[in-house]
Design goal:
It is found in: Cytoplasm. With 166 residues, this protein is mainly beta. It has three helices and eleven strands; from the N terminus they run βββββαββββββαα.
């Protein structure tokens, strides 16, 4: 899938030398989030279910004495039936001081994108509402859908996480 964009003013959100993104996969797409929001990456482990929580909130885990909610992005965005195997990982995020986990299919690498490698996200059929996208990062033939994880995790629908974690 190749997409070309004629706009060069895309990276106004990130000026300067470039930003580092953690690349991860959900289904057939590869996404990136700001590495500064990532606290650690863990293998998937059993979670404690919470009664009456939406299905995409898998439950909570005890992370060194802190109870943190875990969201399964594959369920949240209807990306097929999630499979939990040795590649499944939980990305532990620190969003404005709130710790939470995000289940993804796999994590590939950390990539530095310069501002000219970030293009505006076109209106296209990604799982994520374009409000939550920073843009598309392009590295050679590879394309990362860059997610504004702060915005996504603080959105109204994710507000339920705060109630659960409380």
């Amino acid at each position: 899938m190749s997409m070309t964009s004629t706009s060069n003013n895309a990276a106004h959100a990130h000026d300067g030398a470039g930003s580092e993104f953690l690349a991860f996969t959900l289904g057939s797409e590869e996404y990136g989030i700001d590495i500064l929001k990532v606290q650690e990456i863990r293998g998937y482990e059993a979670v404690t279910r919470i009664a009456n929580a939406p299905e995409f909130i898998k439950g909570v885990i005890n992370l060194r004495g802190i109870i943190i909610p875990v969201v399964d992005m594959r369920i949240k965005f209807n990306l097929g039936t999630p499979v939990y195997d040795q590649f499944t990982v939980v990305i532990i995020l620190n969003i404005s001081g709130r710790i939470m986990g995000m289940v993804v299919d796999s994590v590939s690498d950390v990539t530095t994108l310069s501002p000219d490698q970030v293009k505006p996200a076109p209106e296209m059929g990604t799982a994520f509402n374009s409000d939550y996208l920073i843009g598309l990062g392009t590295i050679d033939e590879r394309m990362l859908i860059l997610v504004d994880i702060d915005k996504l995790m603080s959105s109204g629908e994710m507000g339920l996480i705060e109630k659960i974690a409380a």
